[in-house]
Amino acid sequence: MRKTIHICSSFLLIVALFLADFSLAQTREKIDTAMVAKIKDEGMNRSQVMDILSMLTDIYGPRLTNSPNYRKAADYAKKTMEEWGLQNVHFDSWNEEFGRGWELKKFSLHSLEPAYFPMIAFPKAWSPSVKGTVQTEAIYLDIKNESDLDKYKGKLKGKIVLFSGPTPVEPGFKADAHRFADSTLLQMANARLPEEFPQRGGGRGFQGVRTALQLNYLKWELCRTEGAIAVLEASPNARLEDGTVLVSAATVPYSPDVPFDKRERVYSPNAPTILPQIVVSAEHYNRLYRQIQKGLPVKLELTLETAFTKAESGFNVIAEIPGTDLKDQVVMIGAHLDSWHSGTGATDNASGSAVCLEAIRILKKLGISPRRTIRIGLWGGEEQGLLGSRSYVKRIYGERLDVSAPYDSIKTTPAADKFSVYYNMDNGTGKFRGVYLQGNEAVMPIFREWLRPFEKMGASTLTLNNTGGTDHLSFDAIGLPGFQFIQDPIEYSTRTHHTSMDVYDKAIEADLKHNAVMMAVFAWLSANREEMIPRKK
Amino acid sequence: MRKTIHICSSFLLIVALFLADFSLAQTREKIDTAMVAKIKDEGMNRSQVMDILSMLTDIYGPRLTNSPNYRKAADYAKKTMEEWGLQNVHFDSWNEEFGRGWELKKFSLHSLEPAYFPMIAFPKAWSPSVKGTVQTEAIYLDIKNESDLDKYKGKLKGKIVLFSGPTPVEPGFKADAHRFADSTLLQMANARLPEEFPQRGGGRGFQGVRTALQLNYLKWELCRTEGAIAVLEASPNARLEDGTVLVSAATVPYSPDVPFDKRERVYSPNAPTILPQIVVSAEHYNRLYRQIQKGLPVKLELTLETAFTKAESGFNVIAEIPGTDLKDQVVMIGAHLDSWHSGTGATDNASGSAVCLEAIRILKKLGISPRRTIRIGLWGGEEQGLLGSRSYVKRIYGERLDVSAPYDSIKTTPAADKFSVYYNMDNGTGKFRGVYLQGNEAVMPIFREWLRPFEKMGASTLTLNNTGGTDHLSFDAIGLPGFQFIQDPIEYSTRTHHTSMDVYDKAIEADLKHNAVMMAVFAWLSANREEMIPRKK
Fold first, then answer.
1. How far apart (Å, rounded) are the C-alpha atoms in residues B38 and A106?
2. Is ipTM over 0.95?
3. Which residues form the Peptidase M28 domain (chains A, B) (predicted)?
């Protein structure tokens, strides 16, 4: 017996190896390497991604949702895609009111006394105007508890209020920009399947937070009822310095007692009247603060003219390359077109929009006919809560009726059964280094093969980790495969994200070309494989 | 014999060791450690250096030579030193005309078309005003050789000219700030005596440079004769980004044919009429450039109001703690008080001025009576060529008649024989790590001992290397001992030097305290040692 077994074992080993190889051959994803080479050639040698980026930023940036510039950028994207010969190019209305658009018409802030200097600052989005050019005193609101509020009664009328404390500024011992080290990518590669419902921290310190929120609300009310002319806040991020300001929407003050669903958004036509609000660079704000602390009268000159458009529905821009034998099935790429307003929204997210536009241009240019329809979605309202992509998914593919029970209450349309996959880009200018699988283990062997042409370009990491905060979540929320790529951070969280320095020059041409090629390859391979992309269990 | 010798050798060894020790005791510099401890205690625990810095920057900054703010800062320094009880506090007139002072009264620059945005920019010092607020087109001067000049004939009248090419912007993969690594300090410590006359590079490429200078001159002349309203240039430094602008004096265009001694300085009352000149942040300038390259009309709105004061002499601020038995002999500390104008001149050089003021405050506060007189000099006109310190040295101590033959033509006064040493600070906010010996080998054993109390604080490096570019050179030029400390670079060359971000928040409190203590200790030890500081051979 033993001997027979011994003889057989060699034979069985050979058979096993053969079968293993055969079985690998069966499951290994096929790649059309000739097509990948063509996409690389077009994307690397005749790229238009930087031209597109310049149009979206230098000419039509910033692109605040529903602002005149957002519309111009959408017009440009639509016209450009029509010129490329894409099909079904259209504005996709959300069919529900977003609110008012807004734009900055004129802004300047000068310190007049005790020393003249022009200030680096930027108004918050949807801030109202100040009538005329105003020269007035600046008052620092030194309020640590409710009893301090009385100190300012009768003292704020017609004044500009320094609302926040100073922002500590540190020397830049850490570089703004970096690429992921192998050790970080390895951690991602070795990540376990994420928990469906991550544990939240307990209620510790809740009462302290509530007291702070209530005091903050009372400070805002004080400024408003006392007739302050405008409110200044220091740019808040300790790493964003050198005059860079981080600015988003104006604050609509609410007491913590008001439930979130009873609060009006700042862009709502029903929003309460708010004060003009301006974020000042840390260095310049701190200077005013120190002048005031010395007891010196600080006088400022402010010009702030803003304009609102009428409240209406938001909209996305959609276009496609129609499929052939599987044309009812859809592969989608996308990025949000809207941005914040103090820069030109270059890395958040003209870069993603330009990469998707360039990817679909490359595919169209190659004259190919994909089996499935390849569609592009440029979303509005992402910065206000993924509004554009959520509306699109809800109208076309379905919704999750109970958001607290993620996958138990999903109601999808028949179209959802023919939706293969959505690829999103929205993490700055950085090079794609792989894909966040969003907990979808079944796509791992597929993407592993698809990354092969990009291994030598540094893009070979797959992680079961989730990444959040952008439009793939709208698809993921109803169980449709939706992915973001792993991107080198570059200066995203340290310099450009939602700041005045989110501008064209912060984009890296080589990285955006690489990303457009990868986006086109993933779209093409998804559109032509035998099966749709498998879904999460 | 052998045995005797053997016996004797032990005895001789002991004698030799005793003598060696005795001889060391003879040459080793004495330190009054109790006094050093008192200086450290006052400087570290009751420091006023940041308060002084805030006054010089937040309140009286920037301090362009002979500007109203320079005078205010000088008044503050004088008054403060008088309050501290210093003697002989006075303004030290150069007794020769510097030229006109200048200040910025109002500046703003907005892009109106094709997209509105407020621009980060700053006028060059001594730029003239633009009358009223002007809205006009911006023209990019695409001139590569003289034949291109004609293209712009008749096209610049009333226009704003983009004079320079765009500045490439790179992601910030290198940190702005760093401290010297041990390896760098070791290189300094191991430096050989510098050559008296360093070899200059040959004339290679001189013709090319001359052609470029001539073309540049013709471009300026074109703008002026064609009636352009103002000239914009991109902030030039590829490392200074994120909206930081590097700005110094306005250009007075001269053909390379005009010898340097025939050229008028921009602050001279005889300077030719020049155009208003503004430096724009690289990111914003590049945006305009790309808009224009797309063929889009770019419309800007410019307000620029500047004011000149009448031409008069420059002046320094001088004060002293009188000496006792050697009061005719002088130990000096100093720093330049003047600055460039787009920030508040914090690291260049309110930090040096604040450190010297704090050092002399500490010494005065301790109620000590130094043997030699300890004098402080706060210089004007450093940024225009060490004017204040050169004038002071020339009037009091002598001059080098032939600057091309450094030490052969020096003519000194009797006062120079009683001048011991000058210590300067002017390399930003960074911590003192040692001393540049300026080729003076004789001071090495002295300073080696004086650095002992600072060894554990990271300041123990002596280098024979020279350092240049600031006021110790005025003393060194006539053979008087003049030193600068080795300072950690921090963000000096990467972010703050001559830029809009040279502001208070860029100063590091711990470093300035350390420096003030060291400056006070070096002044004290110099004032009380038996001999004056030895001079270079």
1. 56
2. no
3. 316-520
